[in-house]
Design goal:
This protein is of the alpha/beta class and about 325 residues long. The chain folds into two domains: about 1-175, 3-Layer(aba) Sandwich (Peroxisomal Thiolase, Chain A, domain 1); about 180-335, 3-Layer(aba) Sandwich (Peroxisomal Thiolase, Chain A, domain 1). About 30% of the residues lie in helices and about 25% in strands. It contains eleven helices and 13 strands. It has helices at about 20-25, 30-40, 55-70, 95-100, 115-130, 155-160, 210-215, 230-250, 265-275, 290, 300-310, and strands at about 1-10, 15-20, 40-45, 80, 105-110, 135-145, 165-175, 180-190, 195, 225, 260, 315-325, 330-335. The strands form four sheets. Strands 1-7-6-4-5 form a five-stranded mixed sheet, sandwiched between helices. Helix 3 (about 55-70) crosses helix 4 and helix 8 (about 230-250) packs parallel to helix 9 (about 265-275). The structure holds acetyl coenzyme *A (ACO). Acetyl coenzyme *A binds next to helix 2, helix 6 and helix 8. InterPro entries: ACP_syn_III_C (IPR013747), ACP_syn_III_N (IPR013751), FabH (IPR004655), Thiolase-like (IPR016039). It is an enzyme of class 2 (transferase). This is Beta-ketoacyl-[acyl-carrier-protein] synthase III. Its EC number is 2.3.1.180.
């Protein structure tokens, strides 16, 4: 019986810092509204001409994770890439990483589970390792939101929340003890798919020739839509449920949590969960203030920064949890 263990973490964020005050110059918003509702003070948005894409940012985060893991790219047996903003409609960015890093022709899987994407990706990697199929797996979460946001007053309810960035982890086989990922827990509820959605360019019942012929600049289906309050209410319930599910599956109580890293959806959601579980500020890590919501990248970005800050120690019980579009949600319980 094997376990999988995280032995390397990496991150990359674009240089370009966009503050709330910067946003107030291009749309009708202000620092007070954004800070009060979301806790976000600034985010990174890729600058035109920088060359950063979802795939290239993922590659940079991956390089850091590989180096910190002390392995070579040639040791990687499989790649899992989570994103909702791939460079191309198909193929997904997993193969771009395989090529850019010069990794041998291993499998590359793309995961499409939005804010829960990194937990889904970890779950896949963990179970490939647990079954003995692979030894070292590169898991990436990367997002480039800024190219696709409606940066006008019409889109302000969504566009002020999302940011660009990437995070990565190396999972390796751990033999003979109980360290590493203990369990992962995944859920979905498709009846709410359209409450947090980007409809285009998915064609559904529309024909691509008709979409092109319409050439309609008012077509909002190319921008993300979010029913914010409905998402908020569902998120706080599902986060709590799935954290408890993970703890109970391992015979743990909430007092066992040393570090909770929630998907950085909204600081107010994280604070609600923190209060509900009676956790101190030292037991929850947030960096949404600096980066906004980076969907599939948010957990590996936060995990990397928590680890860099020395906030995660060997033997700690680390809980990762996410909720997002789908709806999908999940948790991951780690004995670090
Ligand atoms: N600046 C100023 N005013 C704004 C802005 C803005 N950026 N955005 C909206 N407003 C206005 C609205 O127009 C509205 O004005 P009105 O009352 O005159 O109509 C008012 O502010 C209140 O708008 P609400 O949408 O009701 O604001 P609410 O307090 O619900 O906050 C928010 C909105 C922050 C989106 C909140 O609902 C939320 O955090 N939801 C959860 C988001 C989330 O967690 N997403 C995670 C998943 S993301 C993923 O999976 C990809």
């Amino acid at each position: 019986m094997y376990n999988s263990k995280i032995i390397g973490l990496g991150k990359y964020v674009p240089d370009n810092v966009v503050t709330n005050d910067d946003l107030s110059k291009i749309m009708d918003t202000n620092d007070e509204w954004i800070t009060e509702r979301t806790g976000i003070k600034e985010r990174r948005w890729v600058k035109e001409g920088s060359g950063d894409t979802t795939a290239t940012m993922g590659v940079k985060a991956a390089k850091m994770a590989i180096e910190r893991a002390g392995i070579s790219k040639d040791d990687i047996d499989f790649i899992v890439f989570a994103t909702l903003s791939p460079d191309m409609y198909f193929p997904g960015p997993g193969v771009q990483v395989q090529h850019a890093l010069g990794i041998k022709t291993v499998g590359a899987l793309d995961v499409r589970n939005q804010c829960s994407g990194f937990i889904y990706a970890l779950s896949v990697a963990d179970n490939f390792i647990k079954t003995g199929m692979y030894k070292n797996i590169l898991v990436i979460g990367s997002e480039l939101h800024s190219h696709g946001l409606d940066k006008t007053t019409r889109g302000r309810g969504v566009s002020v929340i999302f940011g660009d960035g990437a995070g990565a982890a190396i999972l390796t086989r751990e033999e003979g003890n109980k360290k590493g990922i203990l369990s992962t827990h995944l859920h979905s509820q498709g009846e709410h798919a359209e409450e947090l959605v980007l409809k285009a360019p998915g064609m559904g019942t529309r024909w691509v020739n008709d979409i092109l012929a319409d050439n309609n600049e008012d077509d909002e289906s190319y921008f993300p839509y979010m029913n914010g309050q409905f998402v908020f209410k569902n998120a706080v319930v599902r986060f709590s449920e799935v954290i408890m599910e993970g703890l109970m599956a391992n015979g743990l109580q909430k007092e066992a949590i040393d570090m909770l890293i929630p998907h950085q959806a909204n600081l107010r959601i994280a604070q609600f969960i923190q209060n509900k579980f009676g956790l101190t500020n030292d037991q929850v890590f947030n960096n949404i203030q600096k980066y906004g919501n980076t969907t599939a990248a948010s957990i590996p970005l936060a995990l990397t920064e928590a680890w860099e800050a020395g906030k995660i120690k060997e033997g700690d019980t680390v809980v990762l949890a996410a909720f997002g579009s789908g709806f999908t949600w999940g948790s991951c319980i780690i004995n670090w």
